[in-house]
Design a protein that fits this description.
- Keywords: Glycosidase, Hydrolase.
- This protein has about 500 residues and is of the alpha/beta class.
- It has an 8-stranded parallel beta barrel with strand order 1-2-3-4-5-6-7-8, surrounded by 4 helices.
- Helix content is about 45%, strand content about 10%.
- It is globular and about 75 Å long.
- It folds into 2 domains: about 350 residues, TIM Barrel (Alpha-Beta Barrel); about 100 residues.
- It contains 18 helices and 8 strands.
């Protein structure tokens, strides 16, 4: 790892400088960029590396008290290394990736922590709680790289999620510690270690097309310094990764605020919202049918507005079929419980498909017992999750006259509306936008990545780059007419999807 030979002792520097490679060029728009811009329909590989006891209790058999986190397992003695490596080697296998792809999922979200990088990047542990445990976690990085490669071989994108930051970014054990406090902001070493980990991950994966993005922090506790830290960290990552490499940020349970933040940015930054309806006292007393009705009602309008504010760059990185036991009457049958979960799940998918650029179910599997609320495998067997999750099937390339007819209809509707409402529509702007949108939608729909159909998901981000190309070829800036080109582009995408998907 020659790129890392200048790390020693630099975390203690107030202005550290690391020998990372320069950022690669943006991936040219076309088939090679599809993984990152398509609508993501995925599943979380929870508790593979960032452990949670309720998902895989067998790993915690000999953990130190309170026996809830990676730190507790690491403190359990000499056998900790063997226990962890056996788990990493068996929790998710090639057969699991095959199962995921066969059901139409097109990506996985991979939760890891900063200490899983210590094999090639020893300095990431400096001054942190995990500094004594390098020998225990040094084997994780090679397995993480293998996981990314294996996912790609099945046409699956990978969202790298930094689930555990130094000092813990939230009080939950899945952040790596089980002390119940947030220590991320307490020391310079914690923040420097986390920033180093993220820059390292970006330097390793920005040039891998099927790595669909890097998530900075999972569910950080909101803090007055968080937005500033996001901005500073993104700047550091952009020094080793191009502006088209997607960076995902958590909304820290303040979705509207961070939707505004993402919407003001010009680079590829995505907002991650986690949607659960089983934890609050209010949610626990609502049935699955009531939850589904609310998601299709007033919440849909709120969520759609937040997505619009974020320029469509809004995803749901975690959601589930889980409902609290109190949501069900005492005399309800298991079949009726599954029916309510099914309705709850379908309402969520409807919401995400219409107003989000992607989603990942939490989680892929659990270690003990049956749980159709949290385990995608169990929910699939119970037919709570649809048997095919990959959207519509591509019917094939349409004849040119179909595109021409759709363009005429779209252009007529566009000009008629604006003429009737005091506007001055310009067909020389709308028509090329529509045509480009139609053609690009077909690039996605006809792509052969895995079993599922790829659909353009991050439409605004893709269209913005296409508009720059159009302006370059036309030799002029669109200026105030840019909205009309982009409107035509989006209508072209919609028309191609409507015509070509079964």
């Amino acid at each position: 790892m020659g790129l890392l030979n200048k790390f020693k002792d630099q975390l203690s520097s107030s202005s550290p400088s690391y020998d990372f490679p320069p950022p690669p060029h943006p991936i040219p728009l076309g088939p090679s960029a599809i993984f990152r811009y398509r609508k993501q329909r995925g599943v979380n590989l929870g508790s593979w590396f960032a452990l949670e006891r309720w998902i895989c209790p067998e790993v915690f058999r000999e953990a130190a008290q309170p026996g809830q986190s990676d730190w507790d397992v690491a403190r359990s003695g000499d056998h900790a290394k063997r226990i962890l490596e056996e788990h990493w080697d068996t929790w998710v296998t090639e057969e699991d990736f095959r199962w995921i792809a066969e059901r139409g999922f097109n990506s996985v979200r991979l939760p890891i922590a900063y200490y899983h990088l210590c094999g090639p990047l020893f300095e990431v542990l400096k001054g942190t709680d995990f500094e004594p445990f390098h020998h225990i976690f040094e084997g994780a990085w090679g397995r993480i790289k293998q996981a990314v490669e294996l996912a790609g071989s099945y046409g699956l994108g990978v969202l790298i999620d930094l689930h555990g930051a130094a000092g813990a970014q939230n009080p939950d054990a899945h952040s790596g510690l089980s002390r119940g406090k947030v220590g991320f902001w307490d020391t310079h070493a914690n923040q420097a270690s986390t920033s180093l980990a993220l820059r390292f991950l970006a330097s390793q994966f920005a040039s891998v097309p099927h790595v669909v993005g890097l998530e900075l922090l999972n569910e950080p506790q909101n803090n007055s310094r968080l937005q500033g830290w996001y901005t500073h960290t993104i700047e550091g990552i952009r020094s080793v990764a191009p502006p088209d490499f997607p960076i995902y940020i958590s909304d820290a349970w303040d979705t509207q605020h961070y939707a505004d933040y993402v919407g003001r940015r010009d680079d590829f930054v995505v907002l991650d919202h986690h949607l659960y309806r089983c934890f609050t006292g209010d949610d626990k007393h609502k049935s699955g049918i009531v939850h589904a009705k609310e998601l299709r009602g007033h919440f849909k309008d709120i969520f759609a507005g937040q997505s619009d504010t974020a320029k469509g760059a809004l995803v749901v990185g975690e959601w589930s079929a889980s409902l609290d036991p109190q949501s069900f009457p005492q005399d309800i049958s298991d079949g009726e419980k599954d029916a309510q979960r099914r309705e709850f799940v379908y309402s969520q998918i409807e919401l995400f498909e219409k107003h989000a650029a992607g989603w990942w179910f939490w989680t892929y599997k659990k270690g003990d017992g049956w749980d159709a609320g949290w385990s995608a495998r169990d929910a699939s067997r119970a037919e709570i999750i649809p048997p095919w999750i990959g959207g519509g099937r591509f019917k094939g390339m349409p004849p040119k006259e179909v595109k021409d007819a759709e363009l005429r209809d779209g252009h007529h509707a566009h000009t008629s509306y604006w003429q009737a409402n005091g506007g001055s529509p310009d067909s020389t702007v709308y028509a090329p936008g529509f045509s480009q949108g139609w053609d690009d939608a077909l690039i996605f729909l006809s792509a052969g990545h895995g079993n599922s159909t790829s659909e353009l998901g991050f439409i605004t981000q893709w269209a913005a780059r296409r508009r720059v190309e159009y302006e370059s070829h036309a030799g002029k800036k669109l200026g105030k007419a840019a909205w009309e080109w982009e409107h035509g582009f989006k209508q072209g995408v919609d028309a191609a999807s409507r015509v070509c998907l079964a």
